[in-house]
TrEMBL record:
GO annotations of cellular component type: endoplasmic reticulum; Golgi apparatus
Protein name, entry field: Palmitoyltransferase
Catalytic reaction equation(s): L-cysteinyl-[protein] + hexadecanoyl-CoA = S-hexadecanoyl-L-cysteinyl-[protein] + CoA
Entry annotated with the keyword Transmembrane: yes
Organism name: Salmo trutta (Brown trout)
InterPro entries, A to Z: Palmitoyltrfase_DHHC, PFA4/ZDH16/20/ERF2-like
Family, per entry: Belongs to the DHHC palmitoyltransferase family.
The protein's Enzyme Commission number: 2.3.1.225
GO biological process: protein targeting to membrane
GO molecular function, one term: protein-cysteine S-palmitoyltransferase activity
Pfam families: DHHC
Highest taxon listed in the record's lineage: Eukaryota
Free-text note regarding domains: The DHHC domain is required for palmitoyltransferase activity.
Subcellular localization: Golgi apparatus, trans-Golgi network membrane
Length: 423
């Protein structure tokens, strides 16, 4: 394979739907996937000659292929497709159809699938890396369950148009709440009064040792704000050049209860946690919509599961039909619906546990981040194996905590566009 020269991108020349700019800043085309990959040429050549591969050759090859895996788009050129999006789209339908072949296969698949998902979660969480796997799994699971409901359950005749409309409305509201949740968690943007500050270096007092703390100067940070702001905030004394609320990564002064997310690499107001299922942080601006998304999904899922079980097991009780449904594996369509009901029940149980923990934390006015820190430092009262954590720092009683949560602001309306533009 001969290397093909890439044409540099002109400043005013637009991209067509199949063109893109690669990681080296050169114009390329989606059809040129592997035709000029030197890493692939070298790897194949070494494999044919039975020579050992170079160090990190596989990682370089994966990086190149990941950069070139793109799909045509109508504007702005071809869009990159993340590899973490593909596994749920390919594996979930296959595994569910395999699980519908026999009840023993169903037990194996429905047991192994959550274990694999949890294992992948702990691997990515430990590495503090971003992935679209969980968001892709959540969206595709919701869409695929709705597709099977339309193609397998509704034609059986046990579901009317009213029930179908209710499920459709629940799916639409869940997606709308998810879009609102992903809008912004409440980023702490740099303010001109914080960025363009006056730093004054004072000489040490005569009665103080110049070598105290290894430095001969004190640093005082004075904000150029209004008079009322300066009276309220005063002068921030910097200890060894830093403040407790100062984030050196984002170059911002964080308000109380804000935190820096190491996955998103940005500070968030009232940071609760980074949720992999939405691939975003949960903070002050989207915490309420996050709980609403969970609630809408759970209500829709429980209602859909009940309709599926009544359709495939009409003679059984709704509760016992999930455990005992005779003759359901005699027909592949019924077995597939029954397997999907079990899969949806597992997902619903996990998200119900998450929702309950969130409601408990809101009732005690504690975030998930504060709860983990308090349990680690043993500075909070915990009950029920750490599921209930009461730090007592921000609590105003049950009604007061919920009133504060439901009425808390969403932060500034006009964020600053770029951190580097203000430094």
């Amino acid at each position: 394979m001969k290397k093909r020269a890439s044409k540099a991108l002109e400043p005013d020349e637009p991209l067509c739907c199949c063109e893109y700019v690669d990681r080296q800043g050169e114009r390329s085309h989606v059809a040129a996937c592997c035709c000029d990959c030197e890493d692939l040429d070298d790897a194949c050549d070494r494999w044919l000659k039975k020579e050992p591969q170079k160090a990190n050759s596989l990682s370089h090859l994966v990086t190149v292929m990941t950069d070139r895996l793109r799909v045509p788009w109508f504007w702005g050129g071809a869009r990159r497709v993340h590899l973490s999006v593909l596994p749920p789209l390919l594996l979930l339908p296959v595994l569910l159809h395999v699980a519908a072949l026999h009840f023993l296969l169903g037990i194996v698949v429905l047991t192994a699938l959550p274990v694999l998902v949890l294992w992948y979660y702990y691997v990515t969480h430990r590495k503090k890396g971003r992935t679209l796997f969980f968001l892709s799994l959540a969206l595709f699971s919701l869409g695929y369950m709705y597709y099977l409901f339309l193609t397998e359950v509704f034609p059986r005749g046990g579901v009317g148009l009213t029930q179908l409309g209710t499920v459709t409305l629940g799916v639409a509201l869940t997606l709308a709440a998810l879009v609102h949740t992903k809008r912004e968690p409440g980023y702490v943007w740099p303010h001109p009064a914080d960025v363009h500050s006056t730093v004054t270096y004072h000489s040490p007092r005569p009665d103080r040792d110049p070598g105290h703390n290894g430095a001969g100067q004190e640093v005082v940070l004075a904000n150029r704000g209004s008079g009322s702001e300066q009276q309220g905030q005063g002068v921030e004394q910097m200890d060894s050049g830093r403040s407790r609320n100062w984030c050196s990564v984002c170059s911002v002064l964080r308000p109380p209860r804000a935190g820096h997310c190491r996955i998103c690499d940005i500070c968030v107001r009232r940071l609760d946690h980074h949720c992999v299922w939405i691939n975003s942080c949960v903070g002050q601006s989207n915490h309420r919509s996050f709980l609403l998304t969970l609630l809408l999904f759970l209500l829709t899922s429980l209602y859909g599961i009940s309709l599926v079980l009544r359709s495939v097991c009409p003679q059984q009780n709704l509760v016992t039909s999930l455990v005992y449904c005779p003759g359901v594996y005699n027909q592949h369509s019924s077995a597939l619906c029954f397997t999907c009901a079990w899969y949806s029940s597992i997902v619903t149980g996990g998200l119900l546990h998450l929702l309950v923990l969130q409601l408990i934390n809101v009732s005690y006015n504690v975030t998930e981040r504060e709860a983990r820190t308090a349990l680690r430092d043993k500075t909070a009262r915990s009950l029920y194996w750490g599921h209930v954590v009461d730090t007592g720092v921000y609590s105003h009683g049950f009604r007061g905590n919920w009133a504060e949560f439901l009425t808390m602001g969403e932060g500034p309306d006009t964020p600053w566009p770029s951190l580097t533009d203000l430094v």
